[in-house]
Amino acid sequence: MYDINTLEEEWRRYKRKQMRPWIVLLFVVILAIVTVLFTDKTTFEKIVPSVPEEKAEVKPVSIVYIDGPILKPEEKRASHYPENPLPVEAVSAVSEGGSYSKQTVGSKSKLHIEVVEAGHSSNNAYKEVAKRFRMGHDPDDSLFLAKAYYLKGMYKKAEYWALQTNKVNENIEESWLVFAKAKAKQGHRNEAIRVLNEYIKRTNSAEAKIVLNKIKKGVL
Amino acid sequence: MKSRYESAKNVFIDSIDLDDYIELDSSLTAYRQLEHSINKPLKMILLFGRPGTGKSILLNRLQEKLKQQREIHYFDTPAVNEKEFFYKLFKVLTKKSLPQNTEVNFSALVNYCKKLRGKREIIIILDEAQMYGAEMMEKIRLLSDSRAVKFIVSLHKTDDEDLIAKEHFQSRIWEVVELKNATLKDQTAYIHKKLLKKNLFEIANSIKEKHMKLIHKFTRGNYRECNKIMYTIFEICEYYDKNEPTKVNYEQIPKKVIEMAALKLGYIDV
After folding, report:
1. B56-73 pLDDT, tens per residue?
2. Which of A4, A9, A13, A20 to probe by mutation at the B interface, max B CB count within 10 Å?
């Protein structure tokens, strides 16, 4: 008679060996599914905001210059444009809802106006705007990027561009708000509250108070 | 207490006992082919197939069936040397033993066979003929040329032996009968018939189609291997039946037991 216990043990090892390729296959399948899901999610993230993104695509069609103390890079480019400034009416880059809004800008308060239209490649447009910001340090460019990335849900980038805007001009309320909101969205609620409190102390901004309230309530 | 599996185990002890012969479609075909060939004016008939395909039992059966009608002799084990072979042959042909300290003169033996032509027709079955050397085979062929002695040569079919078969036999217009490994259907019938022959109906029914497939996969349709695995399966079942009856499923043989038997016999490894 055989040593049945040894034979049984051998059989268990055989079964484990037999199962091994299936376990590997299962693991590979799970890995593939996870990869596909992750890829899909990333693609989804890229695709979903593409509708407002297309609208928001920043492709300057024309840049209107108005007399006054304009930043140097614009001065250099000024010669390419008509000497007589156009009426001071501009379309801001993107409103929070992703739509365009017309603003009447005073000739002294707004010197650099961009008219944007939907383009083809939003990513390239963003890169172009970022490149232009690095060259010209125009807070409108960085603010545009901050708001656009915020809308896309890319809060880290939104925070970065809001900070860049703030570095150039610390009096732009929108950059404070975008910064605080991006912070809050990333889970740094205390940091967001601290920033807004500091801004409210300085400006007593009603808009900032609304945002602060929303963050405190956890609505944002 | 005797286990029910003990009798089942003993059914599969490998032997060439004619009482255990199981008639299958494939073996019946081969048998008829052999019988038909014997009736033809052929000098030599070649039966070949891989080990364990049932050549020996088929030859035994042929001899058993024909011994009353024909002069048929079965040389089961090859002679250790030429002298011994011719001694055996001399005895068969002359029906006398060779006197002590004498040797068979091959030419004289051939002449003797020639004289027998038309008077007697002797059939000699040479099993395991791959053991005979080329020179011996040539002498056997010369004897068969006398047309008084007809040889049925059984060979293992391996790559080398296949070559021998081609070189020595095929060129001489021999009838060739090939035995192949059992198909799943044949092997299933073989196992069932063997068990039913011993009235082991319940055990025969406990081996399901899926088990037959597994057994066929492990044994590749080789009857000898089939006997081995069936013996081992029932031996393991017998152990469980006696020592750990809770592990035995009397309704059907567990797949585990078949795999354990396969492991034991080395068909699969860890």
Report:
1. 989 999 999 999 999 999
2. A4
Shared-domain flag, residues A108 and A27: no
Give the nearest partner residue to B259 out of A1, A2, A14, using CB atoms.
A14
- Look up the CATH number of the domain holding residue A77: 1.25.40.10
Q: Which of B6, B2, B7 is nearest to B196 (CA)?
A: B7
Of the two residues A93 and B168, the one the predictor is more confident about is: B168
Q: Provide the shortest C-alpha distance from residue A24 to chain B (in Å).
A: 18
The tens digit of pLDDT for each residue in A95-152 reads 444 444 444 444 444 444 444 444 445 677 788 888 888 888 888 889 889 998 999 8
pLDDT digits (tens, 9 = 90+) for A44-84: 555 544 444 444 444 444 444 444 444 444 444 444 444 44
Q: Are residues A132 and A158 in the same domain?
A: yes
Counted domains in chain A:
2
ipTM above 0.90? no
Class of domain B25-179: alpha beta
Subunit contact A11:B236, Cβ cutoff 8 A: no
Looking at the structure, tell me whether residues A55 and A38 fall in a common domain: no
Is residue A41 located within the same domain as residue A67? no
- Establish if A72 touches chain B: CB-CB under 8 angstroms: no
Domain co-membership, A210 together with A154: yes
Supply the range of the domain harboring residue A19: 1-47
* Same domain, yes or no: A82 and A37: no
A27 touches chain B (CB under 8 A): no
Tell me, yes or no, whether A68 and A3 share the same domain.
Answer: no
CB contact under 8 A, B263 and A8: no
- Same domain as A180, residue A141: yes
Residue B255, pLDDT above cutoff 80: yes
Measured between beta carbons, the chain A residues lying within 8 angstroms of B263 are 7, 10-11, 14
